[in-house]
Amino acid sequence: MTGFGAINRDVIVTRTISVILDARTNDHPHIRHRRGPPRCSGATMSTLPNIPPDISHLTVPLLVGSLLNYWLYGVLTVQVYIYHLSFPNDKRRFKALVYVVFVLETLQVCLSAADVYYWFGVGYGNMIHLTSTYLSPFDTPLLGSMISFIVQLFFCYRIRTLNPTRSIWWWTILITCVSITQLYGGVAGSVRGHLNRDFDKAHVHIEDANLWLIGNAVADVMIAATMTVLFLRARRQENRFTNDIVMRLVRLVMETNSLTAGMATIAVILFLALPNRNYFICPTLVIGKLYSNTILVTFNNRVFIARAVHGGHEISAFEAGSPPTLNQPQSITINVSQASYTESLKLKSLDGTEKEETNFGHRESAHVASRSAGFSGEAV
Asked: What is the pTM of this model?
């Protein structure tokens, strides 16, 4: 028994020494390097899905859309700055419109930056983060539909100003109803996207996205067609100067509204044609910025109309918005459907002095508004 007990003690001591040596060798950096990294537990591996080989199909739309969103915000900031310098005497409601849109876009950019930080910063390489909607339901469908609704209502106001007849009144109501429909789709899609919290479930309720995006496209096409017809009616006058400026307005309306309608159409096509991909996210991220830049281009276009009125004289944005210069047009109007609307054009003289208002030779013809036609610029 004594010999058997001694053997057992030797075995126990030997096993203890081997366990200690194994622990020390496992802690040694060279041994760890040779044996590879420590294995994760089964629970950890189950909570972190493997990165798929086609991960670019998920990350590229998010990244490209976010970068375009930031770039368009920079363009919008410059546009707001030009507006602030050029037209300090605009009506308060127009100023409020511009600055409210800019505040909403600033909020949208902040939320979008938080999304990018969540997807590509703290969530780098984590598929759970990449497939999560996080704050994007608020900064894309919610704010995007709100901004497009505001801009579309503004264009309805311009249409009513250009032609306040009963037929146009009903037409603007129809455009407003379409715009309310797209707003409802954007808000509903935002709520459901926040509740689902996963891009893979974005195609569960496609009716919300269809209402939002298709509603935007339809409203923009209706606005562009209506304003183009009204401007072309005003062009039926034997005045080359007026016709040239009217055609500039027609091109501006067609280009801006076609851009927003085209982007919404592209988003719908990608959403419906590729249900297993997230390509539709890229165009939807920039829709709001396109609308906000559209309304600022419409306001700031008066600077270029003033340049045309000057017969090619270069007028910078910093020279606009002050008392008028001698021999400078003060009132140009458009006649649309037997109605005439007069609006003021106030610019600053190159030497900074104030001059008295003078008549302009084209006033007797149907006039083109300094406001890109369709809204008054008198201060209130």
From this structure: 0.72
Q: Which two tokens stand for residue 74?
A: 């920079």
* Residue with tokens 């030779």, as numbered in its chain: 361
Domain chopping of the chain, boundaries: 52-309
Q: How far apart are CA 14 and CA 223, in angstroms?
A: 89
Contact between 168 and 158 (Cβ < 8 Å): no
- Residues with Cβ within 8 Å of 40's Cβ and at least 6 positions away in sequence, in order, are none
* Other C-beta atoms lying within 10 Å of the C-beta of residue 219: 30
Q: Which amino acid is at 10?
A: D
CATH, domain range 52-309:
1.20.1070
At a CB cut-off of 8 Å and minimum separation 6, what does 242 contact? 234, 235, 334, 362, 365, 366, 367, 368
Distance CA 105, CA 101 (A): 6
In this structure, what are the phi and psi dihedrals at residue 30, rounded to the nearest 5 degrees? Answer: -70, -35
Report the 10 Å Cβ neighbour count for 337: 13
Q: How far, in Å, CA of 294 to CA of 315, rounded?
A: 21
The predicted-structure confidence for 239-291, as pLDDT tens digits, reads as follows 666 777 777 888 888 888 889 999 999 999 999 998 888 899 999 999 999 99
Among residues 145, 128, 206, which one has the least CA distance to residue 180? 145
